[in-house]
Amino acid sequence: MKRAVTIAAIFLGIGAAHAAPSPVEDIAGGTKNDRVSRLERIIKARQQTEFEMQQRVSALQREVLDLRGLNEQQAYQLEQILQRQRQLYDEIAKLQTQQSTPVVTTKESNVSVTTPTGSLSETDSYQRAVNMVLKERKYEEAIPAFQEFIGQYPKSSYSANANYWLAQLLFNKGDLSKAKAAFQTVINKFPESGKSSDSMIKLGKIAEQQNDKKLAKRYYQRVVNEYQNSAAARVAKSNIARLKE
After folding, report:
1. Which family does it belong to (predicted)?
2. Pick from 1, 43, 169, 180: most CB atoms within 10 A?
3. 39-65: per-residue pLDDT in tens?
């Protein structure tokens, strides 16, 4: 990347030299004052050329930084998608190893009777809430479903994901106060979870929406400090740079 910028600077320098050539004057003739004046004009012309070239190089560097930031954001988004995919595969594998909710059919009435929601297993209860989001698109109904799961299975292996799902649904709904509390729960109770850094990024976004750039920077900087070399840290750095503009 540096080599590309250097080569571009060389070509720009050549172009600038052709566009604004330094005046060629014979400084040997004339009085001493004439020679000094001609020499000063030559120096000023060269300084102007160098200044213009530096401006073009700086513009190129800014473009490179912008492209790098965009690339990092796209990489982060792709990594989140892949992570969620792997997570869903793991959850499906767990579901397949457990017995599904029994369905009893009476011969007399031929009516199917399913197990009530309150008596669902831990995995079935979680999957029911997830399906409301991914399959049924019932986002409003998914909120109490995740709340019910969190209340019934506070120590579940799905708890971190359930709290993050809940926080994200509240965030999308525009209920920033409750979303903030839910994201904070993920950070406080599940610091080792992969959702912790994502929750900090979202808290930074909420702070930005509430016009508190100082707080947003603190959340982003925390991600950079605690999750170095991660995709979330790269996005946090990009957000910090954007807030400084």
Report:
1. Belongs to the CpoB family.
2. 169
3. 888 888 888 888 888 878 777 776 766
CATH superfamily of this structure's domain 117-244: Tetratricopeptide repeat domain (1.25.40.10)
Cα–Cα distance between 131 and 82 in angstroms, integer?
19
Amino acid in position 57:
V
The contacts of residue 20 (CB under 8 Å, 6+ apart) are 45, 48, 49, 52
Instruction: Tell me the pLDDT band of 223, cut-offs 50, 70 and 90.
Output: very high
Length of the chain: 245
CA distance 183 to 166: 9
| pTM of the predicted model over 0.70 | no
Calpha distance 162→133 (Å, rounded) = 12
Distance between CA 39 and CA 114 in Å, rounded?
96
Question: Three-state DSSP class for 212?
Answer: coil
